[in-house]
Amino acid sequence: MASLGFTRQITSSAIEFPATTRRQRCGFSKNRIGFRILCSENQVSSTEPDLSVTVNGLKMPNPFVIGSGPPGTNYTVMKRAFDEGWGAVIAKTVSLDAAKVVNVTPRYAKLRAAGVNGSAKGQIIGWQNIELISDRPLETMLKEFKQLKEEYPDRILIASIMEEYSKAGWEELIDRVEQSGVDALEINFSCPHGMPERKMGAAVGQDCALLEEVCGWINAKATVPVWAKMTPNITDITQPARISLQTGCEGVAAINTIMSVMGINLDTLRPEPCVEGYSTPGGYSSKAVHPIALAKVMSIAQMMKKEFGDKKDHYSLSAIGGVETGGDAAEFILLGANTVQVCTGVMMHGYGLVKKLCSELQDFMKKHNFSSIEEFRGVSLDYFTTHTDLVRRQQEAYRERKAIKKGLQSDKDWTGDGFVNETESMVSN
Ligand SMILES: Cc1cc2nc3c(=O)[nH]c(=O)nc-3n(C[C@H](O)[C@H](O)[C@H](O)COP(=O)(O)O)c2cc1C
């Protein structure tokens, strides 16, 4: 089994990498202190594809990262993630004052595909949450980050942070979180619910002027790599992604959840999830969002290649949305993602999912003779073009294959008798 190769990659020995500040890599040098990254020594069998990645100087045994959310809420679950072999963990988003974070229950709702014989218990394809960021005291979370880094110095722990519109607040949060020893920061510019009136989360990610200012504060303060997490609830996701990179972030992560209303209960006439008879729009995740996440990641990757391609080793892309298989992850990497995050997948299948993800990704790599992630990263990106160009290419192909009757050139060619076959001849898979 391919998973054997994966287990061999996780070793206890740690090697020290040269101390390079994030600013040295990005061409900034003011007021910076150095930081060190300890990482696992890579001992990959020559017959197994190598899943290890190095992203913004952070070395991971595989590209699979726990996405910010319930799977990174406390010491016990993050430790479990490291023990099971996740490439990195992004903790649940923290802020300065957890007392302002008040959650409700129920806060999750599921969408299922129709089951066998139309039963209501089919596979879960969509997941909605109205959960806020971490409601645990910051000091408690920081103690746990510190403990984790002491126990797992060679593993990558990333703090997800979010704060109100206050320069001093962001600076204090960054300072305190960095002191816990985390390897990087992911900035939650994307939480779709809760606290927009405090200019937090998506309220910043959806306003490019605000984002530019806040990103400026953050990047002037941070001494570890910074990833900006994007909301998909915006017309053009490349705009905030571009601003984040221009203002000094080393990476972009996409996507956070998609604004959704899960449904209306047709007996009670109340929306779901129902809290004391009422609800509020939430964030949609899981399998159903994967195609939307692919499109957003594709747009960001194209923008990064075009506008930041000359410094491609300085900037990273972390893809998120509906990953449950190695194939889902391969798709993101084929679009240019350096790492792949999983949140709802872990909530449904547990931390052991990483073994399946690694083994399936290695199977995909073996099938195509890829020996490393870099070998196939971004190779599918060049096959996206405009619809106008598709028409031009198809007309050219029709001319070349005139003798072969496949597909219809014009709507006038549809027939009544051959309708189903004609439809089938234009399906790609
Ligand atoms: C219950 C739940 C809580 C979440 N909490 C956070 C959070 O605190 N911070 C954050 O940046 N993203 C949060 N997310 C978003 C996920 O990290 C991820 O971006 C999104 O769910 C899409 O990925 P998935 O389909 O793998 O879950 C949360 C998602 C869920 C389902």
TrEMBL record:
Keyword Membrane belongs to the record: no
Designated name of the protein: dihydropyrimidine dehydrogenase (NADP(+))
Tagged with keyword DNA repair: no
Domain of life: Eukaryota
InterPro entries listed in its UniProt record: Aldolase_TIM, Dihydroorotate_DH_cat
Annotated GO MF terms: dihydropyrimidine dehydrogenase (NADP+) activity
Enzyme class, UniProt record, top EC level: oxidoreductase
EC number: 1.3.1.2
Xref: PANTHER family: DIHYDROPYRIMIDINE DEHYDROGENASE [NADP(+)]
Organism: Penstemon smallii
